[in-house]
Specification:
The chain is mainly α. It has one domain. Helices cover 69% and strands 0% of the residues. It has 6 helices and no strands.
């Protein structure tokens, strides 16, 4: 069987298809964050707004740290006091996470 040279456009097409297939098989960080916020008791509209802002403003490492926030999965965030939420966020020892989450929460709650 003769060796057929691959042109640059063909290689780009193969690469694009491979990337598209990879993208289809993974869930975006924004979808994951939104899902977790809904599971924690936020309204879908607020959760979507917050997820977009959190993913835009926090690193993946910070999002993972936020995900590890203990106990929120067992509580309906909507019934927690602001003081409780702030206390749990501060326990992560990352002022940027605290700031971004609170600003997103307040801004998205007002606009919803």
């Amino acid at each position: 069987m003769p060796h057929l040279p691959r042109s640059a456009p063909a290689m780009m097409l193969v690469t694009a298809i491979a990337l598209a297939l990879t993208a289809c098989s993974t869930i975006s960080p924004e979808v994951r964050v939104r899902t977790k916020l809904i599971e924690a008791g936020l309204k879908p509209r607020v959760a979507g707004c917050m997820a977009e802002r959190l993913v835009d403003r926090l690193s993946l490492t910070q999002l993972r740290r936020l995900q590890s926030l203990g106990g929120l999965g067992k509580h309906d965030v909507g019934t927690m006091s602001l003081e409780d939420v702030v206390h749990r966020l501060r326990a992560l020892n990352d002022p940027e996470i605290v700031s971004v989450v609170l600003k997103a929460g307040i801004g998205c709650s007002i606009s919803a």
